[in-house]
Task: inverse folding
């Protein structure tokens, strides 16, 4: 991996509900995977890549990564794990905080924390920016992971909270609505394959794991519920369109700030 964070989403080029694929919900919580300096044993001697791919419900497109995302001493494959019987998705809808970040703040946050998180996590740039801009930072990545940017495994990877963005945009944070159902499907798919990164697997292996989980129908009930609850999400009049990546070619420097702005912007 060439830089300190690799975009696994938030993993295959699954951009959520893409305008290019109107026939399917392409849910995507974009993921970055990072080799933290505080835990170098996780991915020995190997900083993560800068690009990220999406974290997506199995009924849409699976997560995956770039062809050159190799880690040293990783597993030979990552077959999906069975979803634990007691698995229950956790839903923490964000609260719209219009005064938290200006448009300039969001751009500065992106530059300091998301443009090259592999570098900025290691050299302290992101931490310094958050200290100097505490109000905006508290909205963009709150401790309870309900904000637009969600860090996991002690800041080893992050996802964009598309489910939360949808809930805010639709003004429907209740259980059973699109945001909640979308989040449940994403969490289920991740539950089957998170071990792959913990074991040092590659982006491609993680993507293959989620594809296999989809084929095995491990999260079918959650996927079906999300497809039903999110019907019409990609319609031209849908208020949730700003939460969705319009095409696989849309630059994340445009997409990330737009999604963050729905929850934290003016």
Result:
């Amino acid at each position: 991996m060439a830089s300190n964070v690799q975009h696994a989403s938030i993993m295959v080029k699954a951009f959520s509900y893409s305008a290019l694929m109107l026939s399917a919900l392409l849910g995507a919580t974009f993921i970055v995977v990072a080799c933290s300096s505080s835990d170098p044993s996780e991915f020995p001697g190997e900083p993560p890549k800068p690009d990220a791919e999406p974290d997506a419900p199995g009924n849409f497109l699976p997560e995956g990564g770039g062809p050159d995302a190799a880690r040293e001493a990783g597993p030979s494959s990552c077959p999906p794990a069975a979803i634990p019987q007691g698995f229950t998705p956790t839903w923490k809808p964000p609260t719209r905080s219009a005064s938290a970040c200006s448009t300039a703040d969001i751009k500065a946050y992106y530059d300091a924390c998301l443009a090259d998180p592999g570098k900025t996590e290691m050299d302290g740039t992101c931490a310094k920016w958050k200290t100097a801009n505490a109000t905006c930072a508290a909205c963009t990545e709150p401790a309870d992971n309900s904000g637009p940017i969600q860090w996991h495994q002690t800041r080893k990877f992050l996802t964009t909270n598309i489910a939360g963005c949808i809930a805010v945009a639709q003004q429907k944070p209740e259980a059973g609505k699109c945001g909640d159902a979308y989040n449940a499907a994403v969490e289920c798919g991740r539950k089957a394959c998170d071990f792959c990164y913990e074991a040092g697997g590659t982006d491609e292996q993680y993507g293959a794991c989620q594809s296999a989980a989809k084929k095995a129908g491990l999260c079918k009930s959650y996927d079906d519920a999300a497809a039903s609850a999110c019907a019409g999400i990609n319609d031209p009049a849908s208020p949730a369109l700003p939460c969705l990546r319009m095409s696989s070619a849309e630059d994340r420097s445009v997409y990330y700030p737009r999604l963050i702005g729905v929850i934290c912007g003016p």
